[in-house]
Amino acid sequence: MTDAKPLNVFFLCTHNSARSILAEALLNHMGQGKFKAYSAGSSPKDNQKPNPMAIATLERAGISTAGLTSKSWDVFATPDAPHMDLVITVCDNAAGEVCPYWPGQPATAHWGYADPSETVGTDEQKLEAFKHTLIQIKRRLDIFTSLPSTSLSKMALEKTARELAKK
Q1: Which of 57, 101, 110, 149 is deepest in the core (most CB within 10 A)?
Q2: Any bridge partners for residue 89, and if so which?
Q3: Which pLDDT tens digit goes with each residue over 128-156?
Q4: pLDDT tens profile 41-99
């Protein structure tokens, strides 16, 4: 798979400020050219920005935050947008929404995570919630990124990504 173009993986959430941002940055960090991650939200707020605690958590983990922005999934529904191979919803709200038509009908999966930005408590407790979410995402991505190329065809990709939701 080293000579092949990277698989484009699209992480969707509602606001694109926490879980999908963590997943995008982490997969781009771990993907070693085998994967290219993107993220967006189904309904980001006006002037939405990545949650500062998501950015702090990534930086503490040594993961680049360069270029991370909150954006609507509409950005990726245009004809000149990158072709997505796999679309993963990472929050329960986005999983139940009607997604736009994605050209090429990519494989889909849902990996639900609790929203760390809804944690009530001290800043340290909130940061701990973000760290916990990052660890949960990393656990699935460790398996996903180590898959042999034969597991990355569309049908195998969808089956594997859906199986990882159970881990």
Answers
A1: 57
A2: 12, 110
A3: 999 999 999 999 999 999 988 777 776 67
A4: 988 888 889 999 999 999 999 999 999 999 999 888 888 899 999 999 898 665 555 56
Token digits of residue 148: 């042999």
Question: Token pair for residue 123?
Answer: 């800043």
Of 77, 58, 74, 76, give the one whose Cα is nearest residue 66.
58
What tokens were used for 119? 């944690």
What is the set of active-site residues?
A: 13, 91, 99
Q: Give the amino acid at 95.
A: A
Q: Which residues contact 44 (CB under 8 A, 6 or more apart)?
A: 14, 15, 16, 17, 70, 71, 72
CATH topology of domain 7-153: Rossmann fold (3.40.50)
Q: Domain locations in the chain? A: 7-153
Q: Find out whether 19 and 113 touch, Cβ atoms under 8 Å.
A: yes
Which backbone phi and psi does 140 adopt, to 5 degrees?
Answer: -70, -40
Answer whether 31's CB lies under 8 Å from 61's CB. Answer: no
What was the pLDDT predicted at 37? 97
The reply to whether the predicted model has a pTM over 0.70 is yes
